[in-house]
Amino acid sequence: MNPSLKRISIISALLLIAVSLCCGKLTCKEGHSGPTHESMQAVFDLKSFRPAVNLSNPTISNISFTLYAVLGVNEKTQILTTFLWMRQYWRHEFLVWDPDECDGITKISLPAAQLWSPDIIVYEFVDDDVSQACPYVYVNHTGHIRWDRMLRLVSSCNLQIFSFPFDVQNCSFTFGSYMHTIRDVRLAPALTFEEMSGNSKRYLEASGEWELVDILGETSILKFGIDQWDIITIWVVIKRRPVLYVVNLLIPSSFLMLIDIMSFYLPPHSVDRASFKMTLILGYTVFLLIMNDLLPSTANGTPIIGIYFSVCLALMVISLLETVIITNVLHHSSMKSKEVPNWVRVVVLKHIANLICYKWPEDVQPPSEPQEDKPQSSNSNSESWNIQPAIQTPATHPNTNEGAASMPELKQICQYLGDLRAHLISLQKENELTNQWCQVGYVLDFLLFRVYLLLISCYAMVIICMWCVWISQT
């Protein structure tokens, strides 16, 4: 380019800038709708400077946003990903024109990259914005600029997951200038926080598992050393929709616990209840492994639903241990000559049975007061010995030789009968001991079943009350 022409263009541009700065208005020509390109180009050349005639006056920036979607909540990394429609206003004091002189044009669109804009950021952001950029802004004839843009905000948030899946999260978005202090840029909300909340609820009510509860906010001044920044802090309160987790986690777990409770009605003496309970514990463990991906995990704590599953698994193990104890008691009679101690009869068969209202079978009588053990075999021995004299004394028979010959056979038969009677007495005694140990096992099983039901009921009531309190507080 000719140096003289270049010099002339620079001088003309400076003159236009001077006119604009002095008059405060853009120029318009006849036959042109709106300000001329030359006058706006002079403003574009000043995009690196804050658009204020008097630099002692701060530029006021108004912001508002609409929460359109909650894209993700990562409890482990404490990150919230949201999608916002953000609107920002400020005044450009060099972009002013008279609509009467510019063919009635009151609003034009200009490229955002050619104009100065406040460096408003969200202090909690932890990742780059990958949303589609909006390259244009609307400029009013009074110099007010409106910039609508989409913002994919990845921000840090202190997520509280103890009450999962009935948790409520309160995350803050702090809007402020990165470099300009309150002497250069001041911030103010463009809409009230109630209006922001109402606009966001209309779009977020059908968005995924999260429901918007409210949007709150306040304006404040951030002090750092001798500098001060104007900031707007907005709290977004969102609540999780728990239906998915109740159906996939709580209801199956409750069904497995119900099956474990009903397994107590299996007769322990004829069915291998322990194998059934071990299979149930194995199935519950597989269920927890499959559903582990649905549970949030953080280094700060464990959600109460995780504690709930752990306690349910512990209760199943306790139920298995109870079955082992009852099985051991029921098979205790296999030990020969092992009678039920007197204190067991008093404590278990009398007091505990009366306490739990145990219903005795028809063929079994409740135990009476314990008495001193008497030798039961004395009568039988005496009776058996009473037979011996009668047999040893031979009956009068005309043929003494035949009577004498039959004596050894009679003695042998009497001995066989005595052994058979002693064996039957021992079998009867073992059967009585077996019945006594079985009744002890049944009473203990009935007692432990009631204690197990009480533990599960109290635990379920505590969990339900805690969740109800959290829900009512939200």
TrEMBL record:
Keywords: Cell membrane, Disulfide bond, Glycoprotein, Ion channel, Ion transport, Ligand-gated ion channel, Membrane, Postsynaptic cell membrane, Receptor, Signal, Synapse, Transmembrane, Transmembrane helix, Transport. Residues 1-24 form the signal peptide. It is found in: Postsynaptic cell membrane. GO terms for cellular component: postsynaptic membrane. It is a multi-pass membrane protein. NCBIfam families: LIC. This is 5-hydroxytryptamine receptor 3A-like. It comes from Pagothenia borchgrevinki (Bald rockcod). The lineage of its organism: Eukaryota, Metazoa, Chordata, Craniata, Vertebrata.
